[in-house]
Amino acid sequence: MVRDRDVAADVVQESYARVLAVRNAGQDIPEPRALLHQTARRLIIDRHRRASVRQHDDFDSLPESEQPAAPAHLEPESVYAHEQQALAFAAVIEALPPRCREAFVLNRFDGLSHQEVAEHMGISKNMVAQHIIRAVLACKACEDRLGLPDSWPHSAKRGPLA
């Protein structure tokens, strides 16, 4: 399993040492061979995990210029910018009139159709559309202020006024 005689010998020795420690601690071992086999398998798995971690740690020894860059969305500046954008949109949504905000949240975040929102709120489908249009325009204005490309809060499956 390990494809190295020395590593295999180490695993066998460590397995026997652990099983003997269990027996010497006074615990009854009904199936010593099974325990020995399971212990060896777990030691091999642990070695693979440690080797995997060491591979990733090797990047730390590289000069900064040669280290792989983190994905752009995980860079601290990008994370901070997205947090600020989310806060700006949340503030815009929070500033909407209560009924407008409710219709928008039900439609865009809870996924209800205009008809379902109308039934839930006890208003006409046209009124729902007006509320959602107002909210989308407010979000679009925020998007423009932030200099973002046209994307949010438009859904891929629905147009901006769906």
Automatic annotation (TrEMBL):
The keyword Transcription regulation appears for this protein: yes
GO MF term (any one): DNA binding
GO biological process: DNA-templated transcription initiation
Coiled coil feature spans: none
Keyword Nucleus: no
Pfam family, one: Sigma70_r4_2
Residue span(s) of domain RNA polymerase sigma-70 region: 2-52
Keywords: Sigma factor, Transcription, Transcription regulation
InterPro entries per the UniProt record, alphabetical: RNA_pol_sigma-70-like (IPR039425), RNA_pol_sigma-70_dom (IPR014284), RNA_pol_sigma70_r2 (IPR007627), RNA_pol_sigma70_r4_t2 (IPR013249), RNA_pol_sigma_r2 (IPR013325), RNA_pol_sigma_r3/r4-like (IPR013324), WH-like_DNA-bd_sf (IPR036388)
Domain RNA polymerase sigma factor 70 region 4 type: 88-139
Family membership: Belongs to the sigma-70 factor family. ECF subfamily.
Protein name (database record): RNA polymerase sigma-70 factor, ECF subfamily
